Amino acid sequence: MIDEAIAHPWAVWVIVALVCGILEIFLSSFYFIFSSIAALVTALIALQWNWNFQFAGFSLALLLSFVFIRPRCLSKLYGSKGMPSRTEILLGKKGQVTEWIDPVSGKGRVIVEGQDWAAKSEKSILSGQSVLVEGADGIVLQVREI
Question: Residue 117 above 90 pLDDT?
Answer without folding.
Answer: yes
